[in-house]
Amino acid sequence: MNVSKLINININSLKQFNSLRTFTQSAIQLKKKKHVPAIAPLDESELIEQFVRGSGPGGQAVNKTNNAVSLIHTPTGIRVQAHTHRSREANRNQARRVLAERVDYRVNRGHSKLEKMWEKERKKKLVKARKYKKKEAERLVILKQQIQAYSQSSALSTNTESLITEPITIVPPQPIKPASKFPTMSRNSKPFKPKIKTVKSITHPDSTKPTSTNVNKLR
After folding, report:
1. Chain-centroid distance, C-alpha 23
2. What does DSSP say about strands 78-82 and 68-73: parallel, antiparallel, or unpaired?
3. 219: which residues sit within 8 A by CB, 6+ positions away?
4. Which of 61, 67, 60 has its CA nearest to residue 91?
5. Which of 19, 79, 89, 121 is deepest in the core (most CB within 10 A)?
6. 119 Cβ contact partners less than 8 Å away, ≥ 6 residues apart
7. pLDDT tens-digit series, residues 49-85
8. What is the pLDDT of residues 172-205, one digit of tens each?
9. Strand, coil or helix: 88
């Protein structure tokens, strides 16, 4: 094979690979979830920030220091307090995030970030509940089919048992023996002997001398 043909084959395979790669990348991009738009940051001039002493578990670093942050939004009058971290900066960031969500919920009612998140969670729960109901319905259908098949097989077996009232015994045919010409003799039986009767004398009126003859008779 020539080198030019090999180069052409490699170029064609690379083109196909690149087209497949772009297609898969576009499909992956389409599958990406739509993110909820971020909330606009609050104006620092509209906030009143205070550092107060916290309470709860955490020892002296929490109970004897002013790590809790209290924020007040002056246009709406919403007040938020954050005291989940030991660090003051972490509490400040958390207080601003919570206050921005609450202000957005009050100002942009119906289109706020919190409502979109709640709607998203609600849809997830609905989809999950529908899948569960579908699986339960399929399981019930399979169970009904199994019960029906079992009932049919049991009814068939009872019908066959009721038809058979007595056990049937099959006797194999016995071979027919050929008839013998002479009667068979057992060990105790005696051999057959014909009896002979003798007549002493027969006198004939014409004859002058008597004659004796033997007559054999069979019983």
Report:
1. 36
2. antiparallel
3. 194, 195
4. 67
5. 79
6. none
7. 888 877 665 556 566 677 888 888 888 888 988 888 8
8. 777 766 655 555 555 555 665 666 665 555 555 5
9. helix
**Radius of gyration of the CA atoms of the chain, in A:** 59
- As a whole number of angstroms, the distance between CA 80 and CA 47 comes to 11
Q: Which of 108, 103, 105, 98 has the alpha carbon at shortest distance from 74?
A: 103
Token pair, residue 18, equals 């690149």
Beta strands 68-73 and 47-52, pairing class: antiparallel
CB 43 within 8 A of CB 67: no
Residues 6+ apart with CB under 8 A from 69: 49, 50, 51, 52, 81, 82, 83, 88, 91, 92, 94, 95
Boundaries of every domain in the chain = 44-107, 110-158
